[in-house]
Write a structure and sequence with these properties.
fatty acid metabolism; six-stranded mixed beta sheet; 3 domains; Luciferase, domain 3; single chain; Rossmann fold; alpha/beta; GMP Synthetase, Chain A, domain 3; 3-methylmercaptopropionyl-CoA ligase; AMP-dep_synth/lig_dom; nine-stranded mixed beta sheet; binds adenosine-5'-diphosphate
């Protein structure tokens, strides 16, 4: 067979050649809209690659983006990789210390940002020691404007050639403990991950698909959508704001068929539709991941005729590990059973292997019996081997990466996540899933948010304590919540105490930060 070097540039070449006129729509923060297409994205990416070289950038150099989802950001994904560079998508929601750390650690030379993040740039400029050039994706008020900057070039450019294993993108984990860690994706790993993402058991894309990704392009490579979408030649609809009213209008007007995002996005959308008394948008499929998708969300979307693809992954896994969707026994399942199955995290797509091991010794492989939970490990061609600039591999001798998640694998390959290794509660030698307890608690109408933490106990080592933020106007008591939990979980899982708090701390990516919660209650004592 012929030689073919797996480089990301082949993806944009293909998209421009085979799906050139397929539209890419952007709704900007100021309410204006622009339309380009795959040919336009490639043309601008060539110009951007040229413009970066004109600034003196060389193969392997890092370019940062601090931006929402839009066509110019998409151009950067291909333009940076096309000149042999590495795009570092920075999460604007990180805290200043993290922003300082990651940009300096990645040694970003150029930073392209949205005007809405000008305050971050103004604040951080002094602290970012490696950035030599700032480009603004919108206006040129404070920095050169992106369109003007690439407009100085003619686009007569050849993509930089190289190895399949050259890096093309770097993302940092938000780092719930210690400094964030960089995960560098390669051309080959990215391309393989994108091909795997196309399959019916994953994104199920065809050229007829119209995707509005709510998952940000700065979060875990936007789940690889900008690459998989280019391969299939789908239409993209981007929005720089996540206001449900804006998303709803775009979804209807642009005939969006697919969307992807974390569960909170849908929560906001439900609230909007309820308030307005309107139906949910008629989407064919919604990919939901990043944290567990609650049952009521799955039920409501399914009743709306939307296929729910509940996905699990992490920055370290490019990120797709597993995706849920109709399985071979779908026709035989009741609606209830379908919802139950979808509430789990789906099945591994080709390329990745999963296993669970004993939480005590972290070595003994556990049966795939749908009952036994253990530490979840993964390996495959788009799974991390070593963090950026780290001295040692992050995997064992056989390539297994420990995800920090705890789960159960079912005989049909379905993964059911039950907790994170550091959050699971050990009571009298037995494990309690803090996540299951929380999920059961938020099912009570008086509970807005709940977090369960293992607290030291003189007899049982640890016992669960449930921290609850009451829903607005609710006077729910601890006893009422325990009564609500009784039919839902094992008796010995019931929390020893329910504590009401005004707020629960979150990480920069919006997940509950149990570390901060534990710190806040470091003096907490349970009686024997
Ligand atoms: P960060 O580490 O910055 O929060 P990641 O996206 O890498 O961002 O987080 C990955 C983690 O998110 C996983 O290890 C898992 O704990 C959680 N997660 C992702 N998808 C799901 C899901 N579908 N259900 C439950 N947890 C999930």
């Amino acid at each position: 067979m012929q030689e073919f070097t797996m480089r990301i540039t082949s993806v944009i070449d293909h998209a421009a050649r085979e799906s050139g006129p397929r539209e890419i729509v952007t709704r900007w923060a100021d309410g204006s809209e622009t339309r380009t297409d795959w040919s336009g994205i490639r043309r601008d990416a060539l110009k951007m690659a040229q413009a970066l070289e004109a600034l003196g950038l060389k193969k392997g150099d890092r370019v940062a983006s601090l931006a929402m989802n839009h066509s110019r950001h998409l151009v950067s994904w291909y333009g940076v990789a096309g000149m042999g560079g590495v795009l570092h998508t920075v999460n604007p929601r990180l805290f200043d210390d993290q922003l300082e750390y990651i940009v300096n650690h990645a040694e970003d030379k150029v930073l392209c940002y949205d005007a809405m993040f000008q305050p971050i740039v103004d604040r951080m400029k002094e602290r970012w020691t490696t950035v030599e050039h700032y480009i603004c994706y919108d206006s040129g008020e404070h920095s050169p404007a992106f369109e003007d900057w690439i407009g100085t070039q003619n686009g007569d450019y050849e993509w930089v050639a190289g190895e399949e294993t050259d890096p093309c993108m770097i993302c940092y984990t938000s780092g719930t403990t210690g400094n964030p860690k960089g995960v560098q994706y390669e051309h080959r790993s990215t391309l393989m991950h994108a091909i795997a993402g196309l399959q019916p058991a994953a994104f199920n894309f065809s050229s007829a698909s119209v995707m509005l990704p709510v998952v940000p392009m700065f979060h875990a490579a936007s789940w690889g959508l900008p690459y998989a979408g280019a391969m299939a030649g789908i239409k993209f609809v981007f929005s720089c704001v996540n206001d449900p009213a804006v998303l709803h209008e775009l979804m209807l007007r642009e005939k969006v068929t697919d969307s992807a995002g974390v569960p909170t996005v849908w929560l906001a959308h439900f609230q909007y539709c309820d308030k307005e008394g309107i139906d949910l948008p008629p989407l064919k499929a919604a990919t939901i991941g990043g944290s567990a998708c609650p049952r009521f969300m799955i039920e409501r979307l399914m009743k709306n005729g939307t296929r729910v693809q509940h996905a699990w992954g992490m920055t370290e896994t490019s990120p797709i590990g597993t995706v849920g969707g109709p399985t071979w026994d779908w026709e035989e399942l009741s609606f209830e059973e379908r919802v139950n199955k979808t509430a789990m995290q789906g099945r591994p797509i080709f390329g990745v292997e999963l296993r669970t091991v004993d939480l005590d010794d972290m070595a003994t492989e556990l049966p795939r019996d749908g009952k036994t939970s253990g530490a979840l490990q993964i390996r495959g061609p788009w799974i991390i081997k070593r963090y950026f600039k780290a001295e040692e591999d992050a995997v064992d001798a056989d390539g297994w990466f420990d995800t920090g998640d705890v789960g159960i694998i079912h005989p049909d390959g379905t993964l059911q996540l039950t907790d994170r290794t550091k959050d699971v509660i050990k009571s009298g030698g037995e494990w309690i899933s803090s996540v299951e307890l929380e999920n059961a608690a938020v099912g009570h109408a008086g509970v807005a948010e709940a977090a369960c933490v293992g607290m030291p106990h003189p007899k049982w080592d640890e016992r669960p304590v449930l921290f609850v933020v009451r829903a607005e106007g609710s006077n729910v008591t601890g006893d009422e919540i325990v009564e609500h939990l009784k039919p839902l979980i094992a008796k010995w899982w019931l929390p020893d105490a329910v504590e009401f708090v005004d707020d629960i701390p979150h990480t920069a990516t919006g997940k509950i930060s149990k570390k901060d919660l534990r710190d806040r209650f470091s003096d907490y004592k349970l009686e024997a």
